[in-house]
Amino acid sequence: LPPMNSFERLLEDNKAWAAAQVKEDPDFFSRLENLQTPEFLWIGCSDSRVPANEITNTKPGEIFVHRNVANLVVNGDINLLSVLQYSVEVLKVKHIIVVGHYGCGGIQAAMTNKSFGVLNNWLRNIKDVYRLHQAEVDALPTVEEKNSRMTELNVYEQVLNLAKTGIVQSAWKNEQRPYLHGWVYSLKNGILKSIL
Q1: Is 47 a catalytic residue?
Q2: Which end of the chain is more exposed for a tag (fewer CB within 10 A), N or C?
Q3: Active-site residue (options: 9, 13, 25, 47)
């Protein structure tokens, strides 16, 4: 047989995973198919090393997830706003968590003067965070410390952006929810840290 391509392996691994789920819990897929009641919306980075379900030890259906480069909440991002509106108004999530991670490539890229093509438009949002906190960040002695602090400050600013959306403002006014949180994940030890 010819060697299996990586994308074909994904399909085969999916079949094995589905079979294992049914063996362990015969009603697993029928429950998922008929019910989605997550308590949480996770706004995280697209980085493949930060999978929401795995690092929180939650099952499918427990966390509604939106991911983008550097976990940004941009008021003109129709994708994010659609996810936010659906999770708040339809799913009635109780908590929204913005999750950044140390070692984020988006943060690192934004902290340089290099050009990244179309990505520059997106990174501009992180550069704005840097502009707001430049004195604090520049006072740090190493590039790693600057990037780590920028990761934390970026999460903080994205939570503030989230709080300013009409979707969240309306839910607070009418239903006193959702609660907003800011977390940072460490790739070095796998631990989530609450910063807000």
Answers
A1: yes
A2: N
A3: 47
